[in-house]
């Protein structure tokens, strides 16, 4: 199908931004700031938090007390010196003028900045996220309707199988073992690895992928990859383990119309996640 190029506008470039061990400055300590802190902690970043202690939200206080990756300064934003060594800035202030001042300082230094509730002052937006282990799905409305993004997130979350995050993690482990066995970048070998992983993701359902263990992965590689085929779950009948929650799940009847849709959607998410997101973990 030929794309309609005239419709290519009005959106944002959605990225999985790697922040591990990068310094993120968060100015503000209220409710919005607590959400920003959580998102950045998940990304394994180092946080410098600047906010007067009376303004701290209880969740923000908990993060400060329990996370060694947060450096807290009980004061207001001090000026350009607070931006030294910073890779990203997030402001969560009720003071619009101060927020715009910080934004201008960031732009001068080419530091990416997000200013809460002022879309024109944002280099990027925070979307509503579905998170299950390594699986992350972001719903963005390009800063226009965060509440609607949250409603859409709940609808997507309801369609995902219970073990989708675990399945993605196990597929990532299998992919790492495959790369160790057949190393190299690009070329025919790279294409073959990609095709084989896609076939595994589509041949196995979420519950079976989530139940993969070391022995099963080795068997998949020995009798599958090495022989240029993909074993099915039934081919590993002697090794196959049911996920601990499988019995309870199978005891709950689902509508025949709902189950194929939910599983089909989730398989697509898992296949995409293992092929697009997993490379960042090399």
TrEMBL record:
Show the InterPro entries listed in the entry.
Answer: Met8-like, Met8_C, NAD(P)-bd_dom_sf, Sirohaem_synthase_central, Sirohaem_synthase_N
Key words of the record: Membrane, NAD, Oxidoreductase, Porphyrin biosynthesis, Transmembrane, Transmembrane helix
Where the record annotates domain Siroheme biosynthesis protein Met8 C-terminal, the positions are 161-230
- Per the UniProt entry, what are the Gene Ontology biological process annotations, in alphabetical order? siroheme biosynthetic process
What are this entry's molecular-function GO terms? ferrochelatase activity; precorrin-2 dehydrogenase activity
**Reaction equation(s) it catalyzes:** precorrin-2 + NAD(+) = sirohydrochlorin + NADH + 2 H(+)
Give TM regions. Answer: 257-278
Enzyme category, top tier: oxidoreductase
Question: EC number(s) in its UniProt entry?
Answer: 1.3.1.76
What pathway is this protein said to act in by its record? Porphyrin-containing compound metabolism; siroheme biosynthesis; sirohydrochlorin from precorrin-2: step 1/1
Matching entries from SUPFAM superfamilies are given as: NAD(P)-binding Rossmann-fold domains, Siroheme synthase middle domains-like
Q: Where is the Siroheme synthase central domain?
A: 133-158
Q: What is this protein called?
A: precorrin-2 dehydrogenase
Organism, by scientific name, is Antrodiella citrinella
């Amino acid at each position: 199908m030929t794309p309609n190029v005239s419709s290519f506008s009005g959106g944002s470039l959605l990225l999985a931004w790697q922040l591990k061990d990068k310094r993120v400055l968060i100015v503000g300590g209220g409710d919005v700031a607590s959400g920003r802190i959580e998102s950045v902690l998940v990304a394994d970043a180092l946080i410098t938090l600047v906010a007067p202690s009376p303004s701290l939200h209880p969740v923000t206080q908990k993060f400060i007390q329990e996370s060694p990756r947060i450096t807290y300064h009980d004061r207001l934003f001090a000026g350009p010196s607070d931006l030294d060594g910073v890779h990203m800035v997030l402001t969560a202030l009720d003071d619009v003028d101060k927020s715009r001042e910080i934004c201008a300082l960031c732009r001068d230094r080419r530091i990416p900045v997000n200013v809460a509730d002022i879309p024109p002052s944002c280099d990027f937006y925070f979307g509503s996220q579905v998170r299950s282990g390594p699986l992350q799905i972001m719903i963005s409305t390009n800063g226009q309707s965060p509440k609607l993004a949250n409603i859409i997130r709940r609808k997507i979350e309801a369609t995902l199988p219970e073990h989708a995050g675990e399945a993605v993690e196990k597929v990532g482990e299998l992919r790492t073992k495959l790369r160790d066995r057949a190393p190299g970048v690009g070329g025919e070998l790279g294409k073959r690895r990609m095709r084989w992983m896609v076939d595994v993701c589509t041949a196995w359902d979420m519950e079976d992928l989530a139940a993969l263990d070391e022995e099963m992965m080795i068997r998949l590689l020995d009798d599958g990859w090495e022989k240029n085929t993909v074993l099915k779950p039934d081919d590993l009948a002697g090794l196959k383990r049911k996920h601990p929650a499988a019995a309870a799940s199978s005891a709950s009847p689902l509508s025949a119309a709902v189950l194929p849709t939910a599983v089909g959607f989730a398989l697509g998410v898992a296949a995409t996640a293992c092929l697009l997101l997993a490379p960042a973990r090399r």
